[in-house]
Amino acid sequence: MDLALTAAATAQIQRSLEGRQKGLGIRLGVRTTGCSGLAYTLEFVDEADPTDLVKAEAGFSLYVSPKHAVYLQGLEVDYVRQGLNHGFEFLNPNESGRCGCGESFSI
After folding, report:
1. 48, 53, 84, 94: which sits with the fewest CB atoms below 10 Å from its CB?
2. Higher pLDDT pick, 16 / 95
3. DSSP letter assigned to residue 50
4. Strand partners of residue 45
5. Per residue in 55-70, pLDDT tens?
6. Alpha helices, DSSP H only, in 1-107?
7. What is the arrangement of strands in the sheet containing 37-45, beginning at the earlier edge strand?
8. Does 30 score more than 90 pLDDT?
């Protein structure tokens, strides 16, 4: 699975999992939404699905459903702070476009 997390993204996920005090890791996926078609999703994983693709990270695992893997190949996830705003940023070489507000993308 060709996915990468920056040091900032890894640290934020670790903090989130520590704050929750439970969980195996994070599931990365996509959902249908917005004007461009797809949006990235992140959710906590308390119980792994046996069909998930799993990548070990620093102290947690990253889970991806096989049906989402094609959309996420080569993805880099970063955690960015800009002034009062902060959040995950997804850099996907497969994107062919994004909507004007940046909430959804197309491949």
Report:
1. 84
2. 16
3. T
4. 25
5. 998 889 999 999 989 8
6. 7-20, 66-72
7. 53-56, 61-64, 25-33, 37-45, 105-106, 97-98
8. no
Distance of CA 105 to the CA centre of its chain: 14
Q: Please, what is the average pLDDT of the chain? A: 86
Check: CB of residue 87 under 8 Å from CB of residue 16: no
**Number of CB atoms found within 10 A of residue 62's CB:** 23
Measure Cα distances from 83 to 5, 77, 86, 87 in Å: 22, 19, 8, 11
pTM score above 0.70: yes
Tokens at residue 30, please? 């996509």
CA separation for the pair 36, 100 (Å, rounded): 9
Decide: 41 and 30 in contact? Cβ < 8 Å: yes
Can you read off the two tokens belonging to residue 1? 């699975």
